[in-house]
């Protein structure tokens, strides 16, 4: 158990809908990362937050947005869903940006999103 | 320059054999190289990591070999077991200031009994 929690575990919805995925980082971790994992594309970095502020963006679509709240939990919002958005969405957390050990990220169990 | 190239895409090894997965990078600013292990339906979990001040790091049956001049690093799994069957991802990042992890594309390992 990494200490990172994600809810819900599974989500089934229809095209055009909007969903919110939730992540609680490990205790003490200030950075939260979101990744998308589909069968043919491996782990795709979406976005990172550090202590409530956006710090980096990856391959995140404009239909997707995220935020990190004062209690450090994070939410990933996916809107106008398309069939191709079906994937596993992982949240990861790390202690801080300048971790001397390197950016050791701890992953949650993921949310499996199915868009029908 | 931000890519990490990983090979092979899939690997089948007999129980007791050695599994070898290779990664290569271009960005010389990378100085932290972790490997993650992912079982089906689970999130990736940190397996072992290395910094370039050493050429090898061993933890149990898992060894990372690092070649700084060639900008390559590899994971060796000795005495591979069926329980090692999983997808393995290499990754790389810098460690000064903010540096996000760049992941390889993954290797699906199957250890046959």
Brief overview:
The complex is a heterodimer of chains A (116) and B (113). Chain A is mainly beta and 116 residues long. Chain A has strands at residues 5-7, 10-13, 19-24, 31-38, 42-50, 53-57, 64-68, 74-78, 87-94, 106-107, 111-115.
Strand content of chain B: over 45%
Choose one word for the global shape of chain B. globular
What's the total count of β strands of chain A? Answer: 11
Strand content of chain A: over 45%
Number of helices of chain A: 0
Indicate the structural class of chain B.
mainly beta
- Span from first to last CA of chain B? 39 Å
Biggest interface, CB < 8 A: A-B, 27 and 26 residues
Number of helices of chain B: 0
Secondary-structure element sequence of chain A? EEEEEEEEEEE
Give me the count of strands of chain B. Answer: 11
Largest beta-sheet characterization of chain A: 7 strands, mixed
Which percent range fits the helix content of chain A? under 10%
Assign the structural class of chain A, choosing from mainly alpha, mainly beta, alpha/beta, alpha+beta, or little secondary structure: mainly beta
Q: Provide the low-confidence segments of chain A as ranges.
A: none
The low-pLDDT segments of chain B are none
